[in-house]
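Q: I'm writing up a methods section and want to include an example of the input and output format. Could you take the sequence below and give the corresponding predicted structure tokens, formatted cleanly so I can copy it straight into the document?
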Amino acid sequence: MLIKRLHILILKNYLLFFLVAFTVAVFVFLMQFIWMYISDLVGKGLDLKIFGQLFFYASISMVPLALPVSVLLSSIMTFGNFGEHFELTAMKAAGISLYRIIKPVMILSLIFTILAFVFANNIVPYANLRLYSLIFDIRQKHPALNIQEGIFNYDIDGYVIKVDKKNYNTGMMYGFLIYDHVNYFGNRFVLTADSGRIYISSDMNYLVLELFSGCSYEELDEKTQIPQERKYPYHQDFFDFQRVIIPLEGFHLRKTDISFFRHNYKMLKVSALKIKIDSLKELYNKKLNFYARILLLNDILKNQRKLRSYTDSVNLLDKLKILNNIPPDSLKIIYNLDSAFNAQNLHNRKEILHAATSFANTVLTKLNIYSQEAKARKSWLATHQITYHERFVYALACLIFFFIGAPLGSIIRRSGFGIATIVSTLLFLMFYSILMVGERLVKDGNIPAYIGIWLAPAIFIPLEIFIFYKAYTDSVLINYDIYIDRLKKFIEKITPKYFKRQRIRKAREKIRKKRISLRRKNKKNENKT
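A: Here is the clean output for your methods example:
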């Protein structure tokens, strides 16, 4: 009964700290997302509903990152709070081991790990699908119309508008200059007006310009193309009032079909990622074989027509067809090209060398093109493999950070948000940095994905075992004196003569100090007598 109440107390404290930490982590990652896309959001005239959808889907996509940080932070705060108030010491004094103390939170962290994987595999891909389709729609939307004094405005497709002055109280503008490029190449249609005003229709589909006391100028087409005979005709109209209606096709948010983004790697589940990785591997290997056949066989066969007239004794084309599966080096055994080349006259040799040089340059160009394409395909395959493994790594990170945070909190024995935030931030940044380094190595093709992405868990699991052992045995996490003594002994072994001289010098210094103290004592005794 006592253990049950104790577990309920620990779970209540842990869940309270977890909710606070999870909220803060999601908020921090959401601010990072807003900072990343701030240039796409500002000045678009978006309503609050669009912002709400954007932040909601972005928050869901941040959950796999926020969960491990929250588990680590809440674990350090919970057991650090118990340690600071000596509640953890009282539990251990009552005969309750550290394993039994953290057992309920460990089970809860295991549940968080399973839920994190299910969430990242089922809900996050759908949230990413909605999020990136919405970001794409926002990027396609033109900025909100903002005409400033004396500055040409290019926000409306096909029109350039400039005004000299604006009256912000009445909304009137003065000194209009409008270039119409919709049906013309160049500034062939120009509108000028003394004053006017601009407003958007109620359905937000049209921009209405009401112009007063103006003139329209239009250059007309001319049949003749001879410069000396051209008359440069034009048409000019003066008006007292004119209304111009411009459609605003790009100023309202259009919804894109989400199926356009459905096959992106961020929107796929683990099962679909596995199938796509296999298909990309197969396609990559086919392309490599295709490039090899093109470079080693097809290009050679294509250039044999140029060399046939110089090698009458042996039909090299037939030889290559027969020896399709034999390496190129083995051709030297059957047919010596050097002897055939030396048998030709000077003119034929020059043409052969010219053809060979041209052929080599062609092969080198194709090799560069093929290598770039193969590198891009391999990087695209590595991106899918990274996403596949990261789904498991971020879920497992919840359990890894719990086994680091809980014993670390019991060792630190400090409550509050400050020290826990610093420690958890440093540990998470270390984990994330190792993960990013592994991801870069995988994309560069230096190591396979299952090594690069699992490098961070492989480093942190021994660390968590070490910290848990120190907390379980109630020993100091880092005893500097022990490590310093061991370092000194190690240095003494590799440099014995230096430390021997140091010991002799110290011994002489001690003897000198003892002699001085004895002399002082003798003088004091003589003075007394």
